[in-house]
Amino acid sequence: MRLVGGKGNATSFLFTDTQIKEDGFLEDVNNILNTGEVPNIFPADEKADCCELVRGAAKDEERCPEGTPAQLFSFFLERCKKYLHVVLCFSPIGSALRNRIRDFPSIVNCTTIDWFSAWPPDALEAVAQKFLAEIQMEDDVRQACVKMVQTFHTGTDKAAAKF
């Protein structure tokens, strides 16, 4: 945070789901995504140090006319939001991602999601089966619909690659 907000260094924070040892980690990531800060991460003396780190930049940009600690820390947080890029790498397999999204909504609300690998046909079939199971229809029609969902999804991937 000091490098990003204090010195204005653009930085990417890469965090994978294998690094999650306790959910408190995700609480902090959720707060960074949502507000740009982790509440109470800096004690008062370190907060003053952060303010001093940005005093020159704030003066150069004419952003903090009075130079109060509140103004300087706000400027520090703005720079954190501007220069810190959070990259989350989570596996969609299983229920862990679904539960984490439910508990920490900024993972979805404050991010752009990129799926980097194609879904295997059996995963597409399982998802289609699950969602179509709730709809009343004959079994042969359900199976045809499952195949249609797979075809739509794989056809969209092929069309996107061709485009």
Order of helices and strands: HEHHHEHHHH
Structural class: mainly alpha
The number of domains: 2
The CATH architecture of the largest domain: 3-Layer(aba) Sandwich
Can you offer a commentary on this structure?
The protein has 163 residues and is mostly helical. It folds into 2 domains: 108 residues, 3-Layer(aba) Sandwich (Rossmann fold); 42 residues. The chain is built from 8 helices and 2 strands; from the N terminus they run αβαααβαααα. Strands 1-2 form a two-stranded parallel ribbon. Helix 3 crosses helix 4 and helix 7 packs across helix 8. It starts with a helix and ends with a helix.
Could you give a quick summary of the protein structure above?
By secondary structure, this protein is mostly helical.
Task: Please describe the topology of this protein.
Elements: H1 2-6, E1 11-16, H2 24-35, H3 44-60, H4 69-83, E2 84-89, H5 96-103, H6 106-109, H7 121-132, H8 139-162
Parallel strand pairs: 1-2
Helix pairs in contact: 3-4, 7-8
Task: Sum up the structure in keywords.
single chain; about 160 residues; mainly alpha; Rossmann fold; 2 domains; elongated
